[in-house]
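Continuing the batch. This is chain 6 of the set; chains 1 through 5 are on the previous pages. Same settings as before, nothing changed between runs. Recording input and output for traceability.
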Amino acid sequence: MSQTSIIGAYNTEFGAFVKKDKATGLMTDTRTYYDLLVEAGRGAIADAGLEAKDIDGVWVGSCSPGSFINQEHVAPLAAEIDPALRFKPMTRCECACASGSVALYNALYAVESGRVKTALVIGVEKMNLLSTPQMTHVLACCSHWPTEGSRGMSFPMLFAEYAKGYQAHYKIPTEELERMLWTAGALCYKNGAENPLAHMKNGPQSVEEIMKLNEVDAKGKCKNMMIAAPLRLHDCSLVTDGAAALVITRSADAPNKARAVEIAGIGHSVERLPENVRPNMYDLMGGKDAAAKAYAEAGIKAADVDLAEVHDCFTINQILSTEALGFSTDGRAGYDYLDGRFTRDDKIAINLSGGLKSKGHPVGATGASMHALLYKQLVGEAIGVKAKKADIGVAFNVGGSAVTNCVTVLRKR
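Output for chain 6:
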């Protein structure tokens, strides 16, 4: 069992921090990658009640800054947080959309080894300086390039394969599957409307509102166009800029025990990268393995969890994640959402932050953000919707097409 705790956290506002000249298409940065990284790092250190000199090492999770902003070697940027961080070890971690969680895990290993007493973890990404085709290409590089990205397979297409596999395996009628997906999405939009840091605060909050967006107007335009059947625009997460950060230390060394949240268990399980070699495409086998490892280390069951942040990069993955974490039996999560489960009033509340669907998905920052906002819930400082009960929280962060699976159990001391 881990003896490490989160003792401070910070989440920047998430959004599209650019100005676009419609005539030329030229993008102007209004809140840079560098700004976001420094803001998050300073905020987490202050939240922990520490000074920069107290930090022994920094781990930065970032997916593809070389392609997004033409900047590699980003870990040393953390030295700009404070001069006292100069000469401290700094390391970048990359695992696609799970980069933030993997950065946390590597910092955790350093603390547990005794080499580091207190670590700073930052997740950061700046995605909106690129056009949509450019951004889609960068993300496609996180797929298996020979069999997927090079053949024009985008991530909506890759997760659409899971949606089609799930529908076929459980024999779900198309109209029923659509309502399941829209119900999951509307739940996140409703929660995100109350999150002051969320990228989208005005999303459609009911199935009926989403269905209205499916209509084609007189000009042949649809506000909820099909992206990769059966996934429509509002089944997809946002393209977002943002950062989040955490400070961790040995639980025994926490300066303020009342604001320490134990990292009670982790599961890091990696699936084979190409989808075409996996034995099935209707459940998250790697996610289930990661959850089993995390629960076993923490000594809990799924029923013990009060709230979870799950990786709803696409609405189908919210449904699959709910089953992988054991909150629903296989093939039943969609029906549970239709029955009104997983709201703020349920025994297990999912994505009170608004999730990737509403809060946003700055890929390298997402894992750190999940942990930061769960931490805030567990210490009674919720940002946005407050959990009815917050003793045990779970983060489930995914990298690639359900390839890198990171499940963390957080427990209030």
